[in-house]
Amino acid sequence: xxxxxxxxxxxxxxxxxxxxxxGVLPTCKAAEVLVRPxxxxxxxxxxxxxxxxxxxxxxxHEHPLARHRAIVYLDKPITIELRRGAVLKLAPGQTQLxxxxxxxxxxxxxxxxxxxxxxxxxxxxxxxxxFRVRIDGEGQNGKPDTFEWSVGDTWSPxxxxxxxxxxxxxSLDRGVQIRFAKTFGHNKxxxxxxxYDGPEAYGIRIGHGTQRNYIEGIRIVxxxxxxxxxxxxxxxxxxxxxxNAAILVHGRVxxxxxxxxxxxxxMRSVMVYGEHTGEFMPGGRVGPGESFDAxxxxxxxxxxxxxxxxxxxLGHPSHRGHLRRVRCNDNFMVTAxxxxxxxxxxxxxxxxxxxxxxGGQAIHCWRKSSNGLVADNIRINDVTGMPVVTxxxxxxxxxxxxxxxxxxxxxxxxxxxxxxxxxxxE
Length: 426
Description:
Layout: H1 5-24, E1 32-35, H2 41-47, E2 53-56, E3 59-63, E4 70-74, E5 79-82, E6 86-90, E7 102-104, E8 116-120, E9 129-137, E10 146-152, E11 160-164, E12 170-171, E13 176-180, E14 191-196, E15 202-206, E16 215-222, E17 225-227, E18 245-250, E19 253-259, E20 262-264, E21 268-273, E22 275-276, E23 291-292, E24 294-300, E25 303-306, E26 312-314, E27 323-329, E28 332-335, E29 340-342, E30 346-352, E31 355-358, E32 363-366, E33 370-375, E34 378-379, E35 389-394, E36 401-406, E37 409-410, E38 421-425
Parallel strand pairs: 1-2, 2-5, 3-6, 4-15, 5-16, 6-17, 15-18, 16-19, 17-20, 18-21, 19-24, 20-25, 21-26, 24-27, 25-28, 26-29, 27-30, 28-31, 30-33, 31-34, 32-35, 33-36, 34-37, 35-38
Antiparallel strand pairs: 7-14, 8-13, 9-10, 9-14, 10-11, 12-13, 22-23
């Protein structure tokens, strides 16, 4: 049957209208899921779908650690929003002082010989502490090498100096003993830190370091607060591999935005770094293995209120995967120690427009970070003339490279921008 012109036009009109209707039909809308104080946030985040928004309502959300030593662990593209008045808080007593110490070896002079051991029976009643042991003399004419040691604050004066190495167990303090297997062959300046402390904990964690596939598209936003409750939990030493943070981004993670939050009572507010399976060697070198890299991370307009700790750590010498394209911009922070630390294996980064009130370093470009812009940052509440930016590295490590510094001001001390302080530290 031959269609008339009118019927053909009618058919075309029906198809056009059908197409328009299909075009305006709503797609599957992302859900908004409310978390009220008392709800289990990890269970909520586990069951929501990619693209959903998990909203913490105002109130205290106090919880123990869950997956991967975090209150909340994320591994899919969702948005976490902490509304104004919402506080995600670590419950008391989640971390306790441990008898087994952690030994940190990647400080001091490059070690010709590392035969250092720790033993004894640490007295838990004395509380967390750090022992510092350093070779202070190289033996000659048949005499053994010697060491000095201290306990307490990381840089406290030595309790004893020029102690001859015996090759047997030698007592320090608090039930701790150390041993060097050989009495000679150590080089002066070799340094070990022995930390007795608590295990790590995180508020929100993205990635566990060696996940095979990328985790991406996560947003952590809002006007709420993450509180790591360090007054009621034993925190790790700042010298060990894994320390506390309000937010940790670790391993194959990309396209993450952290915006607007307040982070407090923690060791670090935000930490971001990759991971590597190869053997870690002195000076940052790494043996054959697989690199799990993080990239495209934005931290902006956040607040760090941490008068007992530090701020943002970007790259880590004990987690040697790469970290690329990080922006840490327009944040406000109050810290006792380093506020922003671009560190090892960080490449292509911005640290701009931050306002910093720090009792220690403001911005410390540390070890071999590369291709960074550090500009328009202001240090406040300092009349002593401390620098805004310090650029250096410890012994045996390479300095940061290709870092552009521009218009960084100590508000009360600088009349014009001052150059960075370049040095090699311990």
